[in-house]
Amino acid sequence: MKLEQFQMERMQSTWENLVRYNLSESGVHPATIAELIPDAAQREALLNVELGYSQSNGTPELRRAIAAIYPGATEENVIATVGTAEANFLIAWMLTEPGDDVVMMMPNYMQLWGLVRSFGAELKPLPLVEELQWAPDLDALERAVSPRTKLIAICNPNNPTGSILTEQEMERIVAAARRSGAWLLADEVYRGAELERDITPSFWGSYEKVIITSGLSKAYGLPGLRIGWIVSTPELVANAWSYHDYTTIGPGPASDMLAQVALTPENRARLLKRTRSILNSNYPILEEWAAANDLQFVPPQAGAIAYLRYHLEIGSLELVERLRREKSVLIVPGEHFLMGKYLRIGFGSNAHHLREGLELISSFIEAL
Ligand SMILES: Cc1ncc(COP(=O)(O)O)c(C=O)c1O
Can you tell me the distance from the alpha carbon of 80 to that of 57, in angstroms, rounded to the nearest whole number? Predict the structure, then answer.
């Protein structure tokens, strides 16, 4: 099998912890263990966690806490994974093979793009249209879906645009999946990271063949726990567990325990509020900076990311590479999303850090 490089992750994995200003991240500044567990006595319990093999599909307590987010789901509908990344990987590996079509929302987090093509499936884009505030071209969806469609892959809220589907758009996507019999995969890792509006509706419950992937990395500000999940039919979840035996076996027990803490109703509300507060206090910094630097963008509805269009005589890969080398600032080029003169800038870090990083981008642009 020939593996395509996952360009954005390759760049982030290489540089994100080496640069001075990492503005390539799509989530908010992470919470600490002390913030997650303010009570010192409760924190003590963590010291007694045995570092053995945990229940590999997630402890029943964790699976029940995840199921509680999705009305009607039980622990039988849930497998815990190592990040949303593993959840998506398992689905791609299980479901796609040569001869299959996969319809994928574009632009998107490119993990599935690279994976399903490596597994031999053919990719058909479902474009988001900038002139329509990054709404999906549903006529293109109708044209792309056929009896060969194995999977329709949606990312809602979307990375990199921060756009959110309307309920009518969701219904049309479900109808297209139903017509073709395809599985509908909704990566909802940014659900709960909305700026001004209510929590995004989930695709859960809209169709018998729906698969939700998500995790604690973005809306909860806990990417280092590496906890994600799949929520789907008990049969699909049981099958995913047998694939998971070959990937990671399962999440570690400390992460499982901390994820249970994060998902108590009280802590869940507290973490989502923390994320929203960071997003809303940092967004004006980004907005003002973009206006001052002649960068246009559709305001994101969710996620700590803005997807900006620029007009300079330099390609986005080269711009990002030079910015990193000359200023030690990391952002994501539009070319990583197979697009042209766009930049994805994360605004979820500490405000002073964000301001300094943006200032350096301005001075770099001025010098060009
Ligand atoms: C849409 C989407 N899915 C999955 C992931 C991976 O998330 P995790 O850190 O939970 O593995 C990301 C990370 O940026 C993402 O943007």
Answer: 5
Residue 324's alpha-carbon distances to 20, 192, 265, 328, in angstroms, are: 9, 31, 41, 4
Query: Ramachandran region of residue 162, left (φ > 0), alpha (ψ -120 to 50) or beta?
Result: left
Q: What is the pTM of this model?
A: 0.98
CA of 84 to the centre of ligand 1 (A): 5
CB 220 within 8 A of CB 192: yes
Please, what is the angle between helix 316-327 and helix 351-367, to 10°? 110
Name the nearest CA neighbour of 211 among 114, 117, 88, 98. 88
> How would you write the pLDDT of the chain (368 residues) with one tens digit per residue?
889 899 999 999 999 999 999 999 999 999 999 999 988 888 998 999 999 999 999 999 999 999 999 999 999 999 999 999 999 999 999 999 999 999 999 999 999 999 999 999 999 999 999 999 999 999 999 999 999 999 999 999 999 999 999 999 999 999 999 999 999 999 999 999 999 999 999 999 999 999 999 999 999 999 999 999 999 999 999 999 999 999 999 999 999 999 999 999 999 999 999 999 999 999 999 999 999 999 999 999 999 999 999 999 999 999 999 999 999 999 999 999 999 999 999 999 999 999 999 999 999 999 98
- Residue 53 CA, ligand 1 centroid: distance in Å: 24
Q: Which domains does the chain have, with CATH numbers?
A: 7-32+267-367 (3.90.1150.10), 48-263 (3.40.640.10)
Integer Rg of the chain from CA = 20
Q: Is 215 in the pocket of ligand 1 (CB under 6 A)?
A: yes
Tell me the C-alpha distance between 212 and 115, whole Å.
Answer: 18
Place of tokens 């058909």: 124
**Residue 312 CA to ligand 1 centre (angstroms):** 30
Please work out whether the CB of residue 109 comes within 6 Å of at least one atom of ligand 1: yes
